[in-house]
User: Fold this.
Amino acid sequence: MTTPKEFSSAALALIDELNSRRAVIGILGMGYVGQPLALRFSQLGYRVLGLDIDAEKVAQLNVGHSQIEHISDAAIQAANHAGMECTTDFSRAREADALILCVPTPLNKYREPDLSYVTKTIDSIVPYLRAGQVVSLESTTYPGTTEEEMLPRVAATGLAVGEEIFLVYSPEREDPGNTDFTTNSIPKVVGGHTAACLEVGKALYGQAIDRIVPVSSTKAAEMTKLLENIHRAVNIGLVNEMKIVADRMGIDIFEVIDAAATKPFGFTAYYPGPGLGGHCIPIDPFYLTWKAREYGLHTRFIELSGEINRAMPEYVVGKVVKALNERRLSLHGSKALVLGISYKKNVDDMRESPAVEVMELLRAAGADVAYSDPHVPVFPKMREHKFNLSSVPLTAETLASYDVLVLTTDHAKFDYELIALNARLIVDSRGIYRTPASNIVKA
Assistant:
């Protein structure tokens, strides 16, 4: 095993810079992952340089506005006061000792990995890489990405990876809106391309994160993140399928889950909903199934859960159609109000939100669609969805004016008693309303 004494002088110097907090930390992608990381490094006294292609976001951050609900302007302003600076000028990457990529890794229209954000970002900084830097990828991706996409680009600079420049994969584990865990309290998995890369990666994150979990390779680190999220996706797929079966049998699945959760061992409660949202859980299974095909493997179990979860928005809309039909109404021409459009409760994060898919399906069927979400005052710009809408305030009068309310995200700020008392019809996909009522349909 390589000992620190056998590491190159560049590795030892960089480790010292990182451990002493004299290093400059560059964050590429100042979004839901990049901003908390930037704030954490800034709090510790590192100089932070944020790089992003979005000029408006950069301008807002530089005047102390985060644009992310759960990150306060005061926190951004404190970081700015401590020296954090954001820019769209990627040539400034040469100033950073550590470059951490926190960019999206979505799926394309064929449900295949789209690494264009990763490759474009690394291509944009390759001309400015220098000896004594570490490049760390945090974006969720398939095993082999660091070696197959990052390594050749970094090596093309002529710098020796593991001796002059260092390559790390460390998956992000951010959970927007979760107040029980902060950036520093979530253990950090780190894999390096070489032993020296791993030691540099441990030094990079060791000051900022309470517990570092080193693994043997970048592939192992990449697979770790996929396992974490596929575990959730498969179990949510299972409970979504159980919901459909229970509904057909006239059984309340939420009652069943609550009863099963009293078992003190061997059971973890997962709850059904209108589908999967967020950047990771709906996407990660497809990254692994795509890569597995290269090895002649068909991940049937994982793919089946993905199919079930992707079908849930259609299931919810089907329940809307049935409920309206029973009231001698057609979805076409009906006024539908979607309650909650972020991907999970109490946040403004819209990434892969199943609520938006529900809105699309309702609109395609001819419904007059509106939404109410206390965390999303105006429907944001999205790559695949476009609605020119603002959030509808919930009053007794407005609630009564809609033919159907579709509860897709169970925000704590909603007044559920007011909603139940005034809505003509509620299709509840989150199990908020447990007591049967004539105007409530479970979905």
About this structure: The chain has a mean pLDDT of 95. The longest strand covers residues 24-28. The chain has two domains: 4-217, 255-442. The chain is about 40% helix and 10% strand.
